[in-house]
């Protein structure tokens, strides 16, 4: 039925891979319930997953009874973007007269006026849809979520499906070492395919083989890798251009393998500088309150490649929260950006590692009238160890927002011991650890607001 809706309502002919997913995934048992309540669609970028989602929503909500479809992605904003893509396609189609879009601050819905069926976005957080009873759940970009998020989100619909049969469609491209839910779904799905129970979990996956003739796919010559991806992509001969893939390959081979080859990127070291399990436990979606007095941390790469600004606030219970603010190439942008933040959130303490290139940025900040916590070698070594200990101790005293740039910094960071016995962050690869440094400095600033050095007037000769 979804394929017919796509064809007759939206004027879109389903791709063969979409038709296969729908033929299998929407199979109905003799009692009228779906054979599969959990469906995994792991497909490369540019496969056409958006139209699949649109067809599923139209089928679920366009029937004769009141139904509910919900969708989420990496965060609330991404969930709304996903919802808007699907809702707009439905509203612009011949179904438009049957639906009514409602868009307001923090509340969006597409409602079918005849049956009162609804399609809603929801933020991926606890209790987001606990008062609802969805018939269809769509989780997009599954690679973003860890196992903790899986537990939280599944608790919103798995109990509902036990008494009101529905389906959860989990869609994603390949992931990273942090993609706990994706890895779990892939393993669970492959086991289901091997067992072939005919119900429960339906698993669809498109990816290139990790090795060809004993050679890792990532080590193939460009033309061989391009042909391999082209031959395995589900939209080959259905609108996808090979010259587009060729351009993507020349831009970034690791990104190409992940986005179009379906190969998870290996961005984790064999041993991370902070315990991997504790780092995951310290990840939180809790945000710093808007009225909180925060500390700002500035990080500057030792080679001046990039710079970063992070905010931190310590809760009354003693746990520090951190949020990434900005991370850009170069350093000249930092002083004006920090000046604006300080003016908007005064009073605020600003900390920076006052060693190497950090000294130059500190001078620029002082010129802009920003009072600073200038961390010398001793304080900086203490800040690094305190941050590491705060994440690793139980219970934790430092949490983080899981920003991708911070995750990359942590996984490519090492500890360098100086001749005087101090230990501090250091790069172990070409990936900078700047965001880890700014986050460390931010926690120090949040804990030492009274140590700020007043700005000295600029000396002038008249």
Automatic annotation (TrEMBL):
Residues 38-186 form the Terminase large subunit-like ATPase domain. Pfam families: TerL_ATPase (PF03354). This is Terminase large subunit-like ATPase domain-containing protein. It comes from Acidipropionibacterium acidipropionici.
């Amino acid at each position: 039925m979804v394929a017919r809706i796509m064809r007759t309502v939206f004027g879109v002919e389903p791709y063969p891979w979409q038709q296969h997913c729908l033929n299998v995934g929407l199979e109905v048992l003799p009692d009228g319930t779906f054979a599969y309540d959990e469906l995994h669609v792991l497909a490369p970028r540019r496969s056409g997953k958006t139209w699949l989602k649109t067809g599923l929503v139209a089928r679920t909500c366009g029937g004769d009874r009141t139904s509910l479809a919900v969708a989420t992605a990496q965060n609330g904003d991404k969930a709304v973007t996903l919802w808007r893509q699907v809702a707009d396609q439905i509203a612009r189609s011949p179904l438009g007269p049957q639906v009514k879009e409602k868009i307001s601050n923090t509340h969006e819905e597409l409602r079918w006026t005849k049956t009162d069926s609804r399609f809603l976005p929801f933020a991926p957080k606890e209790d987001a849809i606990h008062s609802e009873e969805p018939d269809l759940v769509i989780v997009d970009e599954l690679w973003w979520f860890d196992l903790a998020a899986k537990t939280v989100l599944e608790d919103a619909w798995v109990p509902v499906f036990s008494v009101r049969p529905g389906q959860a469609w989990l869609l994603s491209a390949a992931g990273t070492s942090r993609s706990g839910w994706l890895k779990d779904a892939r393993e669970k799905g492959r086991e289901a395919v091997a067992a072939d129970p005919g119900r429960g979990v339906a698993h669809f996956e498109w990816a290139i083989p990790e090795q060809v003739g004993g050679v890792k796919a990532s080590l193939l010559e460009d033309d061989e890798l391009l042909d391999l991806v082209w031959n395995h992509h589900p939209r080959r001969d259905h609108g996808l251009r090979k010259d587009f893939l060729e351009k993507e390959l020349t831009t970034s081979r690791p990104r190409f393998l992940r986005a179009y080859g379906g190969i998870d990127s290996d961005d984790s070291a064999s041993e991370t500088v902070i315990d991997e399990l504790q780092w995951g436990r310290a990840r939180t979606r809790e945000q710093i309150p808007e009225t909180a007095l925060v500390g700002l941390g500035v990080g500057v790469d030792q080679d001046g490649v990039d710079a970063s600004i992070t905010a931190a606030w310590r809760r009354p219970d003693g746990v520090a929260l951190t949020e990434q603010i900005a991370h850009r190439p170069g350093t000249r942008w930092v002083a004006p950006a920090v000046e604006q933040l300080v003016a908007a959130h005064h009073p605020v303490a600003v900390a920076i590692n006052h060693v190497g290139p950090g000294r130059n940025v500190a001078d620029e900040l002082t010129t802009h009238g920003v009072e600073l916590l200038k961390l010398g070698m001793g304080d900086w070594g203490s800040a690094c160890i305190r941050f590491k200990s705060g994440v690793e101790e139980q219970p934790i005293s430092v949490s983080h927002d899981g920003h991708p740039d911070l995750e990359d910094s942590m996984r490519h960071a090492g500890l360098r011991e100086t001749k005087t016995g101090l230990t501090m962050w250091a790069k172990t690869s070409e990936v900078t650890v700047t965001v880890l440094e700014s986050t460390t400095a931010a926690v120090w600033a949040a804990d030492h607001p009274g140590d700020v050095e007043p700005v000295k007037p600029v000396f002038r000769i008249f």
